[in-house]
Design a protein that fits this description.
- Helix content is 34%, strand content 32%.
- It is an alpha+beta fold.
- It has a single domain, classed as 3-Layer(aba) Sandwich (Trna Endonuclease, Chain: A, domain 1).
- It has a five-stranded mixed β-sheet.
- Strand 2 and strand 3 form a beta hairpin.
- The protein starts with 15 loop residues before the first helix and ends with a strand.
- The mean pLDDT is 88.
Length: 134
């Protein structure tokens, strides 16, 4: 006698607002990466997931390693304010994880940058936007 296996329950459809936000974020990160490449920066990683958080872009130029947070908002001021102290701590923790996993980068100068992406304008790169003392 053959028994039918139970079928897995189908996943609920993704929330359209979350899908739109995800796509918007990917687009902003792509624009930020293009700006950085135009400035002579080598992109080592994008959307780097670690157990303690995600780093949008990890980039190298010369002896500097930059961990870059990308913020896309309708207005420049809103984008700048979106990098909260809590997020800075998460990025610093993720950067420490990166450095432990990539010992060759430990001798580089470490920097935490932000790229602000606003509709209708070029992305704005803010080098050394915050430091690891948060």
């Amino acid at each position: 006698m053959h028994r039918e296996q139970p079928q897995p329950k189908p996943s609920p459809p993704p929330d359209p607002a979350r899908v739109a936000a995800f796509r918007h974020g990917l687009s902003a990160e792509g624009r930020a990466a293009l700006l950085l490449i135009a400035k002579g920066v080598w992109i080592a990683a994008r959307r780097c997931k670690t157990p303690v958080g995600e780093i949008d872009i990890v980039a190298r130029r010369g002896k500097t390693l930059a961990f870059i947070e990308v913020k896309a908002r309708a207005r420049d001021a809103d984008a700048a304010e979106a990098v909260t102290t809590h997020q800075q701590r998460r990025i610093v923790a993720a950067a420490r994880y990166w450095l432990a996993s990539h010992p060759g980068d430990a001798t580089r100068n470490i920097r935490f940058d932000v790229v602000l992406v606003v509709p209708g304008r070029f992305p704005r790169h803010i080098p050394a936007a915050f430091d690891a003392t948060v």
